Amino acid sequence: MAQTLSEQILSRAAGRPVRAGEVVTVDVDLVMMHDSLSPSIIRVLHEELGAERVWDPERVAVVIDHVAPAASVQTAEKQADLRRWARAQGIAHLFDVGRGISHPVLVEEGLARPGMIILGSDSHSTAYGCVGAFGTGMGTTDIALALATGRTWLRVPETVLVRARGRFRPGVGPKDLALRAARALRADGATYAAVEWHGVEFLSVMERMTLATLSIEVGAKAGIVPPGVDRGQGTGDRDGLALPLASVPGWLTLQEAAEYSQVVEIDLDALEPQVSAPHTVDNVTDLSALGRVAVDVVYLGTCTNGHYEDMAAAARLLRGRRLAPGVRMLVVPASARALQRAAEDGTLATLLAAGATVGTPGCGACIGRHMGVLAPGEVCLFTGNRNFRGRMGSPQASIYLASPEVAAATAITGYITHPQELLASAEA
Amino acid sequence: MHILTEAPMARVWMFGQDINTDQIVPGRYAPYMLKHEDDLRNYPFIEHRPDFAAQVRPGDVIVAGNNFGCGSSREYAPLALRMVGVGAIVAPLFARIFFRNALNLGIPCFTADLTGQLRDGQQVELDLEQGILHTDDGRTIQLPPPPAFLREVWAAGGIVPFYRAYGRFPGEHA
Ligand code: SF4
Questions:
Q1: Does the ipTM exceed 0.90?
Q2: In terms of residue numbers, what domain contains B78?
Q3: Which residues line ligand 1 (CB under 6 A)?
Q4: Ligand 1 centre and the CA of A22: distance in Å?
Q5: Which of A99, A363, A380, A391, when mutated, tests ligand 1's pocket best, judged by the most ligand atoms within 8 Å of its CB?
Q6: B25-67, pLDDT tens digit by residue?
Q7: Interface contact flag, B104 A188, Cβ < 8 Å
Q8: Within 13 Å of residue A31, how many CA atoms lie on the same side as its CB?
Q9: What's the domain count of chain B?
Q10: CATH number of A276-420
């Protein structure tokens, strides 16, 4: 019987062929926990579950990314506790302040690999679908239980297929595809389901992460890009991350006859830049239909669009230009490695010359805790994944989600702008 | 379901659709950011609906629109609701992570659309054992039970007591 990628991964883990709708208990390959929820996870693990040690310290990654560096004595103290705990438990993979956001870091380190089941204490753990892993987010208690036992229960999800055709036009990219899918599926359109993204084998691993992270915004349990297909033009390793794609297990394949609960077709040749307007992610329109929206802040970052590719795309537009008067541009790289690459090839210098400022790799202001939170009445053009009221600070602020190209164009003009307006002259 | 007590008259708190976890507890009010984790009890819906935290009483029922709890994995969102004693949440569809977190914490979640049948501030009596809601205007509303394989977790009062009692996961054979 033909299976979806989620069915294949969960069948292998369950040791028997399973179909959507079945409930399985499986061994997990990797558990990721971050600074924000670790204190409560550790408390549940030891005090409520009575476990003294994690089941396998080699399969646990601890990342300090949500408030990095610490913004207060409280957070500093909890991070110090977390470091001590990780050392005492012999946790093999501790990524401290500045290394970056958990999701890109685990992929860069080769810890997230195709076919794995990865649990993260973070809803955007769907990100690991960028290498063809089944990544899913869970809360404190589920993560603590997985740390204690190495196992979890999952209902095998139905799969919603998003099938892209064609190629992006200049100034249009993966973020626009993901927002277009959210517009079609709505915020609850893939609840309890997985999303598979087909027709995007030409994207790099981190570009695939844009799609995988946004899968949770339509409610999905996992968001998977088929790994390792189309090795010719397929440039999954364009960004030097050949390792994860080279390790695609033979049993993980695209099966033509797999059953999908819904199919969304998106024609990339006709796709325009998309913008998600306040205050829900599925409130998406074509940028051209948006009208004139002036912004105070342009924020380029997050696990969705803070990658090297995103900084490079923004730099292409910002080269030789300056931010509009009165506009602030914050760049918070998704990882130290992305920052390093941007520093090495001049991308960073271009952004700085244009007037942008750069923060420590990590989550930054994405969750409204530090490093650029918004004041009442401020408008932010954000390359992240959530525009919920109050997400980045004041509940009276407005957040518009868009691509790095739109972010750069907007930084130059001061209002939400189609990159095409500036691209022509950028290339001239 | 011995641990789930029957509350006397409870207030209905109506909420709209797509209520996200940033509305339930903004990330800025996470226990991580607070001096004492227990302070979390002051913050459910602190910005979205500030009267809630001040006036909610143990046993009160949240009745919401579609996609309740969408967004983040923060278990402190349902934890804040448990701290103030929310008796049950009723919505046509729950976001997946929220549903798991609430189940794990022993908060009864009923998948049903009551948005057109109840009004904010209405008094109800919830019989959790039978899954029946009695309204102050004399109606009786039967709530659908949770999926069979999860009923045991519910009955145990959450995943920790369930796992400690049975040493297995929901749906896993004994
Ligand atoms: S960047 Fe934002 S969405 Fe991504 S893990 Fe950090 S807080 Fe979550």
A1: yes
A2: 10-144
A3: A 66, 101, 122, 124, 302-303, 363, 366-367, 384-385
A4: 30
A5: A363
A6: 999 999 999 988 899 999 999 999 999 999 999 999 999 999 9
A7: no
A8: 29
A9: 1
A10: 3.30.499.10
